[in-house]
Specification:
Blueprint: H1 2-5, H2 7-32, E1 45-46, E2 49-50, H3 55-73, H4 76-92, H5 104-125, H6 131-168, H7 178-195, H8 200-216, H9 222-225, H10 233-243
Antiparallel strand pairs: 1-2
Length: 244
């Protein structure tokens, strides 16, 4: 029921995830690519005199040496922290969702936001500036800013789905009749339709959730009135397997 109700939310979340991932890679992809060994300049010998090293190759060589010296000068702990943050960011770009409750785009946004906050703290207290962290922070801020409006709507829709699931879940609640659960459930649907007026996108999500909810309503509440009746078809089928 909830997976079907969440379908437009999951589709929009997937689109946001792809866009967010592309923006992050566009902003800080050079940092996130794994380091590959640089090729040193090669002198080819013609007769007894080596051919001159091309200016561009020489410049690249100086750049490699300069970068190596800089990295060598960093404290090992600081370098380990930088690499951990870059690895964490790379991992977050690979998240996959599992609707209705795990929306990868929402999770990616929130976890990248946590990385950005961590970088803020490090740059505030670090004894010296770290250009890679400043680059990472600027790139993450730009990517998160571009996705913020979509994230707000998706976060709200995800909260609605969690709220409906909580109303239907008997765990940790006093015993309720089917009629009592249905009254709470209908109140939740009414509240989300009211809140959805804030955004056309939310209105679309709310209409789909309400439409699917009404189609499932005839079968949702029997289990609260019949003691021991499984709440889902999967649980019912497990009983058939046990008898078999």
């Amino acid at each position: 029921y909830l997976k079907n109700a969440a379908q437009p939310v999951a589709d929009a979340d997937e689109q946001m995830k792809i866009a967010l991932r592309q923006t992050v890679r566009g902003q800080v992809g050079d940092l996130l690519r794994p380091n590959s060994p640089e090729k040193p300049a090669v002198l080819t010998v013609t007769g007894l005199i080596p051919s001159p090293t091309p200016a561009s190759v020489a410049a690249d060589t100086r750049s490699v040496v300069s970068t190596a010296d800089t990295n060598a000068g960093l404290a090992p702990q600081q370098e380990a922290i930088v690499q951990d943050l870059l690895q964490r960011t790379r991992y977050l770009l690979t998240l996959k969702g599992r609707p209705p409750f795990r929306l990868a785009g929402v999770e990616m946004f929130e976890q990248l936001q946590a990385v950005a906050r961590c970088v803020d703290q490090l740059l505030r207290y670090a004894p010296r500036s770290e250009p890679r962290l400043r680059h990472l922070r600027a790139g993450l801020r730009a990517a998160l800013r571009a996705a913020r409006a979509d994230y707000r709507d998706l976060r709200q829709a995800a909260d609605w789905l969690t709220q409906i699931a909580d109303v239907l879940d008997p765990a940790g609640k006093p015993a309720r009749t089917g009629a009592e659960v249905r009254a709470e459930w209908e109140q939740s649907l009414h509240e989300l339709k009211t809140a959805a007026q804030a955004s056309p996108c939310l209105q679309g999500f709310a209409e789909k959730i309400d439409k699917v909810s009404q189609s499932y309503a005839p079968g949702l509440f029997h289990t609260y009135d019949v003691l021991g009746l499984p709440r889902t078809n999967n649980e019912r089928e497990s009983e058939f397997r046990e008898v078999k």
